[in-house]
Structures are given as structure tokens and as C-alpha cells.
User: What shape does this take?
Amino acid sequence: MMIMDRLYHEAVKKGPICVGLDSTLKFLPKYLLSKDCSDGEKITEFNKKIIDATADLAACYKVQIACYESLGLDGMKAYSETVKYARSKGIVVIGDVKRGDISSTGDQYAKGHFTGDFEVDVMTVNAYMGVDAVSPYYKYIKENNKGLFILQRTSNPSAVDLQNLAVGDDTIYEIMGDKIEAWGSAFRGENGFSAIGSVVGLTRPEEFEAIRARCPHTFFLVPGYGAQGGTGEDIAKILKASRCAVVNSSRGLITAHQKAGCEDEGFAEQIRNATLAMQEDILKWL
Amino acid sequence: MMIMDRLYHEAVKKGPICVGLDSTLKFLPKYLLSKDCSDGEKITEFNKKIIDATADLAACYKVQIACYESLGLDGMKAYSETVKYARSKGIVVIGDVKRGDISSTGDQYAKGHFTGDFEVDVMTVNAYMGVDAVSPYYKYIKENNKGLFILQRTSNPSAVDLQNLAVGDDTIYEIMGDKIEAWGSAFRGENGFSAIGSVVGLTRPEEFEAIRARCPHTFFLVPGYGAQGGTGEDIAKILKASRCAVVNSSRGLITAHQKAGCEDEGFAEQIRNATLAMQEDILKWL
Assistant: This one.
């Protein structure tokens, strides 16, 4: 099944939850921090236990590569082991890498993130450089059933610096959305969504509804729930019109044990409970 | 000395040459390919020999991380060893990583590329997400003498997709340039340039001259020479007004041995000769 169809079906079946593994040392329970192994190994164990505890609830996992790059080679090994473990459970894995470069360089990123040690199912891409930053992945979309999420309207406060500027009657994020629809038109699956999706934050729900209506073949990766302010009611408004999105939460889920004061092996159960609460917070509005 | 002052002085002293280590297996001489070691180790040796042969000519090295990510963990080790080796020679190293993310994630990228295994002096940044993608690095600019090059007007054909769109009287790349000038205003060195530089391709020289005039405190990393079409005369026109740039060549230099049919240990001498020819091609117009 085409990757975005697979993600769509998982989101309909389990709920649209993307568990964000933005795992850093400060989120680890004390029992793990005190283990006699490398920082990367501690984070790998943290992630594996979260995956075990949430695999029946997560439509997908998003792994934020920056958290692993920050630990150097040891961190990159943890990234590799995390994405391999999550994929071995049969769950869609999004590499949140936000790469983007000229074609010859894009070819290298495509090989790096769609094959080998860092292989994921879908990666995030920054298209400030235009279609050259996107087309190197087409081969992998066609031949290896991979997918993309391209940054359109991000969830951070300064997204407006560039993305909300007006070019004639349209904003940059609307223009980017039109491009994503066009680039994806060759890669549509049985549910009408293309293998080239879009990242739109939940922090301005009224913008999001207009984006969804303008990009009917685009599947969305939605950050901004929880720690960044978006609510279940916000996303449910979008999903009532079309089950076109997965909603990411990272800190809101993977720090749940700390809020509960749990520093032992029971931590993953707390993260599971937070994931269930997020699921309920969204599904009750649908 | 502030990092961009250091780069300015190197460029004035040696010539404005940035040697781009976009090293992939297909560029290696046959004697190296046949060695009994990993692909990453072969590339590390290739790079070290290039660095040894060009250290007196290069104002800086730019290492394209995509080429290393494409080889997985073995490639990341090669990246780490390459940047360490070039820095050990006292030469400025630019990590061409084009990262960009929300603040909490940017903190992780900053740690990852300005400390530890992947430490470089300057990194490239994509600011589609606005100032949030830039401000996490300020701490390292101030406390660790690091610098940035932010994508402004890139050298690839589809740069125009977004960067040349008009917002009122200005293009997106002009607006990005104004932001780079503003963000850098707190970090200016003794030569007037700030620690926050800009990436502008050489592929449209007339645009470049207008950008330079509009961004007088910005130092430029200039791709697009050689394989992408820019000439020594093109860049010399800019440098006559201000010695405000280093010019990168990657494939044009590191494949010189292949054009000369050299597949043995003499390869680095061919790359040195190509670097000398590039230096002359620029300096003869100044």
C-alpha cells in the first residue's frame, strides 16, 4: 500500500497520533540516567520502551534527528537504532530531518534517509530552494514507496517572518501549498492523498482550515499540539472535514513521567497514559 | 579574532577560495577504492590528502554533510574525522548542513554542530522558519566564536520558485538579506562584517551586486563557480567593490584528477593544480 495510504489507514484505525521522539537526556528517568552505558544507549533504551508501550496507539513515530546529532556519533547510532526498532514493529516512521539542498546534494540526502542506517518511511523537507530540493526524492517515492512532508506553515512564532508574507493575493505558505499539491499530483494513492504531504502547525487553526480546503490531495503532519498550544478541538475541526492529518506531540507525551514524578521503569506506562489522554482529547470531538 | 574577521583575512591573504569537500565514492581514485577499509575510511583518506595538498591555498573548507549522511554511521564518522582534521590545520571549516528548526530543536543542532564530534567553525542555516531557526546559535556566536551562513539566493535553477517572488517592491531574497543584516547587527567584527553571513550563488552576477550593495555588513559564501557556471570575472566584479566573499568550488576541484586520468596517489596534486587555476582565474581580474 502506498505510504500515505498506509498512514491514512493507521490514523483512521488508531487515531491520528504521531508520537514525537525528540528524546534528550533531560527527559530520561533517573534509573536510566544512572545506567553504565553511553548517553546514546540510554536514549535508545528510553525510545524502545516508549515504542513498546505505545505501538498500539501510535499511527506513526516522528524522530527529531537534531536531538541525536547533538550527541555526535553516539547519538547518530541511537537515531539509527530507534528508527530501525520502530520500523521493525511495522509502524510508519517519519525522520524529522528538514533537509533541503540542490539536486546533486538532495540525491545524497535521499540515499542517506531512504536506505541504510538511517532509513525511514517518510522524511521532512525544507523547500526554500524550490523543486530542486524535492525532486531528488521522486525516485524513492516511486521505487521504494517512500514519502515526504514539506514545510508549509510551521508552528513556531516566527513562522510569520517569511511564510505569511503576501505575494499578490497569496501568502508564501499558500504558494508553497499550491506547489506541494502540484509536486504530489503524480504520486496520488487510493485515498486521494499524495506521497508528498505538508507540515502545517496547529497554532493557527483558522489558517489551517483554509489550507486544507485549498490542498485537498495533501496529507498533513501537524505539530503544535500540547506544549505549543494547539488543542484536540482545534484539530478535530479539520479532521471532521477530512481525515487528512496526523498530529504530533513530543514533549507533551515523552515527559509525562516527569510530571507524574516517576523516575523508575514504570515511566513508559505514564507516557502510554498521556498518549491515551491525547487520543481521547482528539477523538471525543469527532 | 572574530570568526568572520578570520575568514576575511584568510580570503585576502590566500585568495577567496573555499574548497568544497562534497566527497563521494565516485570521485575517489581507483587506488583508494581498492583499499581494504570501509567506504567512510576511504573518503576520510581522500579528504585528508586533499587538505594536505591545498591547505596553503584554501581560505576555508566547506564540508557537505549530505555526502556523509548518505553512507550512514560510517559516513558520519568520516564527516567527523574530516572536519577535525581540517580544523587541526588551523583552517576555517564550514559545515554545509543547511539546518533550520524551531528554537528548542535549533538548540540541539547548535550543540551538535558547534561542539563535539561534528564541531565546525561556521554552519549553513535555512531560515524558512524565521528568526527562531537562527537565534539558537547566538549563544555560540558570542561565547564560542562561531558563525553562520544563511541561505539567501541559492545557486540552483529552482531558487527562483520561492526566492525571487515579489513582496511589494522587494523579492523574498532581498527581504531575507535585510533580515540577515539585522540579525547580524549585534555581531559585527573589526572589518565591519557580522558573524552571520549569507549564501548567494554566483549564477546571477547582476543580482549579486545589488545584494552586496544592500547588505554591506554581510560576508558571503558563494557557490555556483565552475560546475554550476559562475566565472572568475563574475566574482571579481563583486570583490573589487568589497572583499566580502569566499567562493566555493566542489566538483570543479575534487574531480580534477579524474579529468586528468589520474587514479593513483598523485591525485591530490591534480586537485592542487585545479585550486591554483581557480585562484588565478579570480585574482587576475582583481
